[in-house]
Amino acid sequence: MIDKLHKDSCTGCKACGDICPKEAISFPIDAEGFWHPIIDEDKCIKCNLCEKACPALSTSMFENGSRKVPSTYKVYHKDKNVRYNSTSGALYYALAESFVENRDYIAGCVYDDDYKGAHHEVGNTVESLQKIMRSKYFQSDTAGVYKTIKKLLQKSERVLFCGTGCQVAGLYGFLGKDYPGLYTVELICRGVNSPLAFSSYMDELEKKFGSEIQEVHLKNKSHGWTNLGTLVKFKNGESYYKDRYHDPWVNAYIVGNLYIRPCCEHCKYKSFPRVADITIGDFWGLKFSKEEQKLGVSVALVNTPKGDELMSTSKNFMEVEERSLDEAAKGNPALQSTVKMNPDRNEFFKRIKNEPYSKVVWNLLGITKMSLVISTAKRNTKTLLKKCYYRLIKRRLVRQRMELK
Ligand SMILES: Cc1cc2nc3c(=O)[nH]c(=O)nc-3n(C[C@H](O)[C@H](O)[C@H](O)COP(=O)(O)OP(=O)(O)OC[C@H]3O[C@@H](n4cnc5c(N)ncnc54)[C@H](O)[C@@H]3O)c2cc1C
Ligand code: SF4
Ligand code: SF4
Ligand code: SF4
What we know:
Blueprint: H1 15-19, E1 25-26, E2 38-39, H2 49-53, E3 71-77, H3 80-85, H4 91-101, E4 105-111, E5 118-123, H5 126-132, H6 145-154, E6 159-163, H7 165-175, E7 182-187, H8 195-209, E8 213-220, E9 229-234, E10 239-243, H9 248-255, E11 278-282, H10 290-295, E12 298-302, H11 305-313, E13 318-323, H12 325-331, H13 345-351, H14 357-365, H15 369-404
Parallel strand pairs: 4-6, 6-7, 7-11
Antiparallel strand pairs: 1-2, 3-12, 3-13, 4-5, 8-9, 9-10, 11-12
Helix pairs in contact: 9-14
């Protein structure tokens, strides 16, 4: 039964909870802030539906015609404002726009009202799309969303679902078959962080700024897509911004792997064929123009004929250029590799009960105020030297050209 599944294998996709006819499955939250299923034996009728739906217990991938070698594209949205406000090149927005225009449905991750958690929601308006857009880099609660999607599909509605690979697998596991109206998008995913870690960070910021949160923008582009940062706006009009070198959240995630869900260390959704119709992410590793550095570029791995159809119906919203899978894979290790947990994670969860979030992060990562100042100075000097070097070369070229004339 699913509650006997090893804790490190359960992804928390909640497909089992949605399928149980007796509502016998609940998801208590552990000391790290992650939910895991338990079965109420008094309610359970041993129908085994939960086991059949569970993608972690299945040895094969759901059969949706996914190709071993996807078609690969570099993509960005034509609208610069939409692109700036999305995480990568706004490929998701472009795919979802055609659904919303037709009043078809989109299902994706939105922040909770207090911005200290996230869950999946279904909608069919521009307002829903604006809530669903942008990455929230911690686990989203999918309870109930699979049931809602099934009802819509049974009424022959079209639904675009976007989530992590394990959530897409959870949806297919719950449905048990593909529906003509269902389209799936999976994020390239280096792992989901603990919702408890995120809420601890937000609590600390609320205390510091003396106000509730109005808006959160992780991987914010105000200093460029290639120089991401964290932006939080507060109801009292104040705001907080830290670039990736100075933000504890980015450091604990990208540098430290401090509080990623344990199942992500042996994620099943890294290989080919992929689980969803389209896989989306950042197209790292290319040579970018100034505008691309500022606004972001997406990668699309189109895995199925339905994926081809999605790309074709959204083509008016985006600039698309065919590239190779090798190029996409080279710059983006999370496409195929898993991350290693930080050995200090237990210490982190023990300490944040009594100490400020950011203090614990910096402490466990061994980063002090002084080391931050030194590394910033080193980076600034490097950038300055680079600028001087290019200016010198440019001047020399101009002089040579004048001499030739
Ligand atoms: C936890 C996480 C890890 C990621 N790791 C990588 C990586 O290593 N490399 C890479 O190239 N890309 C990664 N991505 C994807 C990347 O950040 C962008 O989300 C993606 O490129 C889409 O960007 P966009 O501009 O097209 O659209 P956006 O508008 O930014 O994307 C929004 C879509 O993402 C979904 N989404 C947002 N947050 C979550 C969440 N917490 N759980 C499930 N779905 C969510 C929404 O449902 C929505 O459909 C990750 C995303 C997440 C959430
Ligand atoms: S076996 Fe059936 S009733 Fe029991 S928990 Fe699983 S789905 Fe629910
Ligand atoms: S269906 Fe999802 S949440 Fe339930 S046991 Fe399996 S992996 Fe865990
Ligand atoms: S790394 Fe794999 S298991 Fe972890 S959230 Fe992403 S898709 Fe799911």
